[in-house]
Amino acid sequence: MTTFTVTGEIDPFLHVSLKKGDKIYCESGSMVMMEATLDLQGRMSGGLGQALIRRFANGESFFQQHIEATRGDGDCLLSPALPGAMEIVAVGEAQYILNDGAFVAATSDVALQVRTQGVGNALFGQSGGFFVMETAGKGQLVVSGFGTIFSLDVEPNKDLIIDNAHVVCWDKQLHYELSVTTGNPRQGGGLGGLLGNLVNSVTSGEGVVLRFSGRGKVYICSRNPSSFAKLMAKAGVAGA
């Protein structure tokens, strides 16, 4: 049985221990080290159509790395693209929707499927555009977030409002909608209410938020990847 272990406190490795015959798949370029008993191949998971959608709609790699323990038990170390934590998520009773760039690795009995989402969520959010990644099957999934990862429990009549850029993944049974207001969406209707919400969004610095309702888990990260990208872009310009 494959065992995932997050090793290290700052920018940790994902330590994967495989028994002979075990298989995992992971994001392209995430393999750091593996023992000689393991084989690594690049494959299109889910076929050409799914691979194309992952690449052009979600920014994921066209090919994923597939690692198999073909000659005996073996270990490997994986690392995500962004600096930050990783979380091992049990998939089965709960299935999850992943934000862009969150996927690190999964056992072979977990599938990542592409599905469409509502036009409003697609146009105004950073949660995958018109397509989002959704898990299926039963096994283990590893996700990464920029900074520290924390899990939140959504309960009926206790909606959570989360900055969209800080969401890593969430239980697909949850209802979610994008909003530019952090208050009660039923207050201040009409054009005046919309303008008020937009002004509040700008002045508060929150921008677009996700409102979750129902029952299930949401995993969030402490840092905003978009802000990190802007800082790196500025550093690049300054150093040019």
UniProtKB/TrEMBL annotation:
Superkingdom of origin organism: Bacteria
Q: Name the InterPro entries on file.
A: AIM24 (IPR002838), AIM24_sf (IPR036983), Trp_RNA-bd_attenuator-like_dom (IPR016031)
Q: What organism does this protein naturally occur in?
A: Thiothrix eikelboomii
Q: Short name of one Pfam family for this protein? A: AIM24
UniProt name for this protein:
TIGR00266 family protein
Recorded coiled-coil stretches: none
